[in-house]
Amino acid sequence: MQRLLAAGRTVFEAQGFHNARVDDIVKAAKTSHGTFYLYFSNKEDLFKALALDAAAEMESLAASLGPITPDDDGREAIREWVTQFVDIYEAHGSVIRAQTEWEFNDRDLGKRAHSTLVHISSALAARIHEVRPLDDHGLAEGLACLSMLERFNYFRQAHQVEVSREDAIDTLTRAVFEGFFVPDRRVAGRRVAARPRRVRKAG
Amino acid sequence: MQRLLAAGRTVFEAQGFHNARVDDIVKAAKTSHGTFYLYFSNKEDLFKALALDAAAEMESLAASLGPITPDDDGREAIREWVTQFVDIYEAHGSVIRAQTEWEFNDRDLGKRAHSTLVHISSALAARIHEVRPLDDHGLAEGLACLSMLERFNYFRQAHQVEVSREDAIDTLTRAVFEGFFVPDRRVAGRRVAARPRRVRKAG
Amino acid sequence: MQRLLAAGRTVFEAQGFHNARVDDIVKAAKTSHGTFYLYFSNKEDLFKALALDAAAEMESLAASLGPITPDDDGREAIREWVTQFVDIYEAHGSVIRAQTEWEFNDRDLGKRAHSTLVHISSALAARIHEVRPLDDHGLAEGLACLSMLERFNYFRQAHQVEVSREDAIDTLTRAVFEGFFVPDRRVAGRRVAARPRRVRKAG
Amino acid sequence: MQRLLAAGRTVFEAQGFHNARVDDIVKAAKTSHGTFYLYFSNKEDLFKALALDAAAEMESLAASLGPITPDDDGREAIREWVTQFVDIYEAHGSVIRAQTEWEFNDRDLGKRAHSTLVHISSALAARIHEVRPLDDHGLAEGLACLSMLERFNYFRQAHQVEVSREDAIDTLTRAVFEGFFVPDRRVAGRRVAARPRRVRKAG
DNA sequence: TATGAATGAGATTTCATTCAT
DNA sequence: AATGAATGAAATCTCATTCAT
């Protein structure tokens, strides 16, 4: 039922997963316990429905990232993509935050979160690889980039660190573009070399 | 009691804050409920003791970051600092992760987490400002950098995304250095300009 | 719920407040712990509900005491009033007894008990004053009278000192009437004077 | 140990039996749990030691009540006896009050309290019988008298109903003397007859 | 004698879930 | 479909008592 999903979103936002009582959700939805269990088999089930939504939206980001060139066009593409991220997080952050709390305990949800994570990270890594060929820690690069995006937005919401949407987008755009999509270069007349990459032994 | 603190760390690591039972901790410490409540007034109290430790270690990072120059020396300094971060997270990550789960519900802990966050972010922002003068979203830059570090390490631990310590350090070092400590530059023969900064209205 | 109130009365009667377990009450009411906490927020809460009932009944006695004359009519009026007291105590004694145990620890309940006490004592004192003008220890006279009534009935119930209802009423009637409602008089040909009352210094 | 007994008295006075923690007593006595159990086998045991003291003092009252004549001498004798009662209660009231709370649950203590009660009541009844021959509810008369004395003093202590020692003694003396030790008499020119006594069937 | 850290049985309380209506 | 009173398993917490030192 729609009212229950909406109520769930509100309550999980306000209280987190563990502190949310079925009673709170039911009251917020102005319905009864009985009805709750008519539509969801338990508290977790409602939560998962919300989390799936959020995950689906996030997954869509993986597809929407086109090739990035290390110039102003690339920067613009990143800006657009980052903007999407910020907006999706603004919409689903409450659920994503609650998920962080919950994923510990639930295999399914943990798996799904993990797969979303890997999925987006891989997409990012693939794009980076087109500009700066990566050896085997490609995934790590993608993950680092995604980590920044996710956590920065988390802090914006959860702790109300005052950063406007505009500034958030500016800052993240620059950091993603310069930090991941620009090849190594000379700085102040000297070659700034990446540290020579060692061949990794299998992990 | 030491055994209880150690047991707490283990159990919170394995189960998160909410799913950890006092009983589990007590069993892990091979002691009794009575003893638990002799030393801590409740589960939260033990957890806070651990969280304070972790926060103190993290705070120490704010002080240990010297000036960064945009050359190989700066890169090396960043590498060292990132290494510290990775190692502290390796030691205290279980608690920091559980804190994420808990900070929702506890004013005190939320405040403390927030202050640690702002403290380190500010230190980072100050260093960045020495290289690339920032206008008023300085804190945002610091926060973006810290977000990447924290969340990346979280994913390494929580989801067991297989990234070796060495690769983690390599990846983060490069991303922090290039993404935050290198001034804007020409790429591929064209000037890559930062987007012109608007003067912000007071926030 | 009615069954819980009844069960509470039974259990407090048998075991006193402190020794009564919520479990006992719940079993006596043939219901569950959950139900108990649905209707009462804790053991104290249920107890207070019972105590309020008892207090209300007792308070009603204050109103039902008309003027007493020092003759057979007065004696009859006292007899009727004492009878009421004995019967109310028979109905609510278990709760009143438990209250004695509890009032130590609870400000609210202590206050209420105190006010019932003072209320009835004052009503008694006022009636006595109509027959034997009292100086300022009027309240003390009322309290003495009430003390006798209460404690006598307590002993009848708690220690099962075998005194029939009839004998209890006879004895108390005489003691209340002769002890409080008959003016000083000559005994055996000599004047039996009350000890001269000193003027009290303000207390 | 003396310090423990004194501490027990203080703590039971302040908190009642059930709310008194062994820890409180031990702290008040500036000693340790171990020492407590060296001298007393449990909390109850310490309490009983105090209660026995109080009971012994109270029992002594039974012996100290000489024959009462229904004249000024009798009144003086009653005044002295009442004075003793008030003073003993002042000294031991805290324990007696706590005993009320506890006697519910302890056979031994209940028995002892009961026997003290019956003992004093009987002594009173015997004296009353010398003046106003009583049929079989003699014990009831003694008990009524004792009830008044005990409960009145209880209220003085527990609820701090402000009655000075002097007023307490005045009031109780008159009530005991007139209420129990003066034969039936004419009032206002008419004979005030006691209700005819029925012969009781055995209870 | 004296100590006080450790114990664990047992009490209270919560809340997701069920089911008769 | 909808209700909400009832449930009881499971968690937290207390405190009288013990025992090694």
Detailed description of the structure:
The structure is a homotetramer of 203-residue chains. Chain A has two domains: 1-40, Arc Repressor Mutant, subunit A, CATH 1.10.10.60; 42-184, Tetracycline Repressor, domain 2, CATH 1.10.357.10. Chain A is 72% helix and 2% strand. Chain A has helices spanning 2-19, 22-28, 33-39, 43-63, 72-102, 107-131, 138-158, 165-180; strands spanning 186-187, 190-191. In chain A, a hairpin with a 2-residue loop joins strand 1 (186-187) and strand 2. Chain A is elongated. In chain A, 44% of the residues are buried. Chains in contact: A-B, C-D. At the C-D interface, helix 1, helix 5, helix 6, helix 7 and helix 8 of C face helix 1, helix 5, helix 6, helix 7 and helix 8 of D. The structure holds a DNA duplex (21 and 21 nucleotides).
Helix and strand layout, with pairings?
The structure is a homotetramer of 203-residue chains.
Chain A: H1 2-19, H2 22-28, H3 33-39, H4 43-63, H5 72-102, H6 107-131, H7 138-158, H8 165-180, E1 186-187, E2 190-191
Antiparallel strand pairs in A: 1-2
Helix pairs in contact in A: 1-2, 1-4, 1-5, 4-5, 4-6, 5-7, 5-8, 6-7, 7-8
Chain A binds a DNA duplex (21 and 21 nucleotides) through helix 2 and helix 3.
